[in-house]
Amino acid sequence: MSNILLDLSLSMVKKDEMENMKAFIQTAHRLLHESLGAGKEFTGWLDLPNSYDEAELNRIKYYAEKIKKESQAFVVIGIGGSYLGARALIEALNHNFYNELSEEKRKGPAIYYAGNNISSNYIWDLIDLLEDKDISINVISKSGTTTEPAIAFRVFKEYMEKKYGKRGARERIYVTTDKDRGALRELAEMEGYASFVIPDDIGGRYSVLTAVGLLPIAVSGINIDELLLGASDGVDEYFNEDLDDNICYQYAAIRNILYNKGKDIEILISYEPNLQYFAEWWKQLFGESEGKDNKGIFPASANFTTDLHSLGQLIQDGKRNLFETTIHIEKPKKDITIKADDNNLDKLNYLENKTIDFVNKKAFEGTVAAHTSGRVPNIVIKLPQLNEYYFGKLIYFFEKACAISGYMLGVNPFDQPGVEEYKRNMFKLLGKPGY
Ligand SMILES: O=P(O)(O)OC[C@H]1O[C@H](O)[C@H](O)[C@@H](O)[C@@H]1O
């Protein structure tokens, strides 16, 4: 049966180096599964796909349908873990030009994002774009107090109330936040908005398979049952503490081996442009989880072949402190056959009857060969297809690999104390009371 596969044949790591990681992997496995590790109170995501509350799932589906019916555009207000996962999957699993499609062709409203920056130009332009559209909004914040989404929501709440009146706006505003803490929870209760809960034991960057991600994802027409099924199969498949039989743990182990050899930048590569935000989600997951105590691999990303024409030189020939992890999709959703041309001025007739995906795959093979000859270790994660099931499983694969990798590195993979530093300075400069 087809499945996600991990190809380590070009990782430049020897078999015995992996063997030597077995004990460390088993320790990390125990820290995670027996709730003995740092941040153990944030491991609710571990069994979530297997223990999903059916009633909550049905509520998500019900409101997703309501939003679809009532809206031409849907605005997701959130930052970091409160929006990246949703955007990653909405873009990865839909049409490359989803928002630009006609309403008949699209399976849901156009989806826009706000509250992920503090640019007045951005908010202004978004409001301008939404002027003649019927909209609904989902404000997502675990803490309920993050500045960026809070400011955007203040603007959008006023906008909605002007457009639809207070009662009408109430019907179109959805809140996803903590069960009983935070300003957003208080506001949701006070205004009577439909609301969803981010469980206490799941941190933002591990929350894509909760209502945080599932509501917006379902609104875009993606099958969330299939997504959860993939993740749930991942729970079983990536449980085995024997390194030989667990590709998720192999990925965690090899990252640590490479890091200890001075490879402190990992570039996540894809040959599909609509995986750009999947890489952004992955960057937050690994960056916030591991980058602490003056340690951690810097997670970067590149889109090939696009970036081969801009970053390719550095990867091939620059400082040897990086490695690549490619997400390789075996079968495209659609393909195009290259035809012969009588004039052949572009000299492409040698590709007659080959498909564009065939060329893309040859570009991948050629790139991996070139970069490994340039001493860049290459890890390849192979997915049979770009669909809900495999991406649900891949999400879980990375979440778990990240937690295991973080424990092997000796950090708490579930906190992010460093992020507060810029906030404190900004609040002080803004004159926020108490700073
Ligand atoms: O969901 P929120 O509480 O608004 O947090 C949104 C994001 O901002 C924070 O500063 C954290 O660094 C992230 O881990 C988090 O995902």
UniProtKB/TrEMBL annotation:
Membrane-spanning residues: none
Subcellular location: Cytoplasm
Catalytic activity entry: alpha-D-glucose 6-phosphate = beta-D-fructose 6-phosphate
CDD domains: SIS_PGI_1, SIS_PGI_2
Keywords noted in UniProt: Cytoplasm, Gluconeogenesis, Glycolysis, Isomerase
Pfam families per UniProt: PGI (PF00342)
GO annotation, cellular component aspect: cytosol
Gene Ontology molecular function: carbohydrate derivative binding; glucose-6-phosphate isomerase activity; monosaccharide binding
Record pathway: Carbohydrate biosynthesis; gluconeogenesis; Carbohydrate degradation; glycolysis; D-glyceraldehyde 3-phosphate and glycerone phosphate from D-glucose: step 2/4
Signal peptide range: none
Keyword Isomerase on entry: yes
Residues at the catalytic site: E288 (proton donor), K423
NCBIfam families: PRK14097.1
Role: Catalyzes the reversible isomerization of glucose-6-phosphate to fructose-6-phosphate.
HAMAP family recorded: G6P_isomerase
Family recorded in the similarity comment: Belongs to the GPI family.
Protein name: Glucose-6-phosphate isomerase
Designated gene of the protein: pgi
